[in-house]
Amino acid sequence: MTTADVIQKARLDGRTLLTEVESKDLLQETGIPVVETRLARNKSQAVSIAQELGLPVVLKIVSPDVIHKSDVGGVRTGISSTGQVRAAYDSILSSTLSAVPSASIQGVSVQKMADPGVEVIIGATKDPQFGHVIMFGLGGVLVEILRDVSLRLVPLTSRDARLMVREIKSLPLLQGFRHYPSCDLGKLEGAILQLSQFLEKHPEIKELDLNPILCYPNGIIAVDARVVLEDQDIDS
Amino acid sequence: MGFEIDYIFHPQSIAVAGASESPDKTGHTYFKNVLENFRGKVYPINFRAPQVLGVPTYKSIRDLPENVDYVISAIPNRDILELVDACISKGAKALHLYTARFSETGFEHETQLERDLLAMAKAGGMRILGPNCMGLYYPKEGIAWGRDFPSDSGKVGIISQSGGNGGEIINMGANRGLRFSKVISYGNALDLNEADLMEYFAEDPETEIIGGYIEGVRDGPRFVKALRYASQRKPVVLLKGGRTQAGTQMVSSHTASLAGTQDVWKAMCRQTGVTNTFNMEELIDQLVAFSCMPPATGTNLLVGGGAGGKSVLSADECEEDGLRLHPIPADVREQLTAKDSFFGAWVTNPVDGSIMGGSNLTPHEVITTIANSPEYDVVINSIGVGTGDPSRQTRATRILEHTVDIANNLGKPVALIITDMTPDSPQQLEATIALRSKCIEDGFPIFPSIGRASRATRRLVDYYRWREGLD
Questions:
Q1: CATH number, domain with residue B96
Q2: Of A7, B8, B98, B308, which sits 20 to 30 A from B338 (CA to CA)?
Q3: Cβ–Cβ contact A125 with B under 8 A
Q4: Cα(B325)–Cα(A197) distance, rounded to whole angstroms?
């Protein structure tokens, strides 16, 4: 689905929170590498998608009523057999429904398990006075405690992107600290600039998280995404 | 872009609506100032009093014998629409509304009144400054809102949302030797807003340094663009009021919870090359630094003056602000030991002048020799006024003259500390004031503490590094 299709569908449903699959579809337009993720509406579809993509895979709940998927037991990683796909499908549905009984569930997303890398987050929000702001920081739960993030207003220049990646205190972790692999900072800067250009064209996007993005010595890939739309369309 | 509003600031005639005979009224001060200093025609408008300060009044703008360019309004808000209409009928190009109690009240009726007056002004082709503001201080044209603002001009331009803080910048700055091209207090920013004024100052040839006190921003994206443009041309120093988040919104993403108002403001300043300050003292310090010090892009610092423990504390503060106390290089050391093998080998950075007794070297010689090395980018020297007795004062004056001499020959930023301590005696106070006055006359940057000097110096270096793309 194109960006316009995704937004139109959410509008028809009266939703502002996009699902992971929708968010990733929408992000295609940015050119930022995103793990291919497909929606399985039932268990056998999950198995066949897993076989097509190749094991091991990750399964996640797809529900517009669930914001933090792992908080409701809606994520299973490292699934390496079709039997495990079936079991994971059932357990994701049951734990989600026990945590949020009223959740409307579209199915389960299936994606290939990405190789381990350093986790970072790139996100965007809207400041009431200055409009879209892009954030960069280390991924995982520590980002919220340490607040070690950098911010820049859209539109960003390439200098802005370069400096914001290098501004965080945890930068050494991206530069091959001890056992950490070094990260492709150039690709991260590129992704930040691609996101900036995308946001300039899409004022209807209110909040966005690419969290985590896995970084490797050569390349990066976003494995999860969340997009929140404004209540109404806004002219750019 | 932006400079086309310059005509507003060069009126041929000024009318003060609400010009008052009573000296404690602002309408009196506005009129008195233009009457005494403005070279064009001035008209007091007062419904009741037949004359103000000996000048016959007019009951209405409509009664003026000819058109008027600039109108200052100090009348109550209830009469404002009539005034706007009268101004337009007399061809006024701009109306400054000291008049307040509009949208800032949060009340619907007053907010509507503000919208109505703007619509009327727009239709009539007249610009509005304010409402709810002190307006314009333009010493060159003889326009001022304060009774005691300097009558001479300078190179610092200020935009201030608050008139009170604008006045404080003028008074505090004047005490530190700053002079202003224009200070514009713009209040509710109904028509002319922060972006218009920043665009204007970016182009204004009379303004070499821009300062600002900002609370809210009317047109964020245009303001950011204007700041980027302005700070490529001249230093821009801002102080943001209202830094705490007013009311927390429900947010559902990590990013939104991590991007608070103040964080975004700081990021905006970093991105646009704006020097962000956190209180009035820092704002003034920074304007002093940019006014009096030449550009520098390196952080290697030489600190002079101050015995023993004082030097240690100075060193700590400077290093915390990101300036490096660069060790004395070998070639400089050779020059020093050639003159005095013992003291030349002993002296360090910071230079402890108190160890030099009986040496062939004077502290001034040592500092001059080291400061001349191309390895040093910036210099901070300090003067102890001591007890203020005549011999100490002579020495202090000599250090001052030496420091000015170093600065003039060096082409590097040189800041001087004259400590802002409570004086123990009238002599000490007089000595301090005499030294300060001399510095200010010489256009020399003085700071009351090493921490304030090093912070302002570091921020100056940061700005020029940003401007040169050195990051």
A1: 3.40.50.720
A2: B308
A3: yes
A4: 43
ipTM metric = 0.89
* Long-range contacts of residues B21-30, Cβ cutoff 8 Å, at least 24 apart: B21/B46, B21/B49, B21/B51, B21/B52, B21/B53, B25/B74, B26/B74, B26/B98, B26/B145, B27/B74, B27/B75, B27/B98, B28/B52, B28/B53, B29/B145, B29/B146, B29/B147, B30/B72, B30/B74, B30/B98, B30/B135, B30/B145
Domain coverage including residue B111:
1-132
- Could you tell me if A178 lies within 8 Å of chain B, comparing CB atoms? no
- Name the residue facing B221 among A67, A130, A209 (closest C-beta): A130
Are the C-beta atoms of B420 and B429 separated by less than 8 Å? no
Contact B267 A228 (CB under 8 A): no
CATH of A37-113, one of 3.40.50.2300, 2.30.30.100, 3.30.450.20, 3.30.1490.20: 3.30.1490.20
pLDDT in tens, B267-281: 999 999 999 999 999
Q: What is the CATH number of domain A118-229?
A: 3.30.470.20
Least confident of A9-13, B46-50, B425-429: B425-429
Residue A18 sits at the chain B interface (C-beta within 8 Å): no
Residues in B whose CB is inside 8 Å of some CB of A read 216-217, 220-221, 224, 251-259, 261, 263-264, 266-268, 270-271, 469, 471
Residue ranges, CATH 3.30.1490.20, chain A: 37-113
User: Helices B450-468 and B280-292: crossing angle, nearest 10°?
Assistant: 60
Per-residue pLDDT reduced to its tens digit, B237-248 = 999 987 655 433
Number of Cβ pairs closer than 8 Å across A and B? 81
Tokens of B271: 């991105």
Yes or no, beta carbons of B217 and A208 under 8 Å apart: no
Residue B99 has pLDDT above 90, yes or no: yes
Given a cut of 70, is residue B387 above it in pLDDT?
no
Tens digit of each residue's pLDDT (9 = 90 or more) over B348-384: 999 987 787 788 888 889 999 999 999 999 999 988 7
Distance from CA of A69 to the nearest CA of B (A): 12
Can you say whether the dihedral through the CA atoms of B183, B185, B191, B195 is positive or negative?
positive
A145-185 per-position pLDDT tens digit: 888 999 999 999 999 999 999 999 999 999 988 888 899 99
Q: What percent of chain A lies above the pLDDT cut of 70?
A: 98
The verdict on a CB contact (< 8 Å) between A121 and B252 is: no
B244: CATH: 3.40.50.261
- Partners of B252 on chain A (C-beta within 8 Å) are 17, 67, 207, 228
Question: What DSSP character marks residue B143?
Answer: B
Please count the structural domains in chain B. Answer: 3
B197 and B240 fall within a common domain: yes
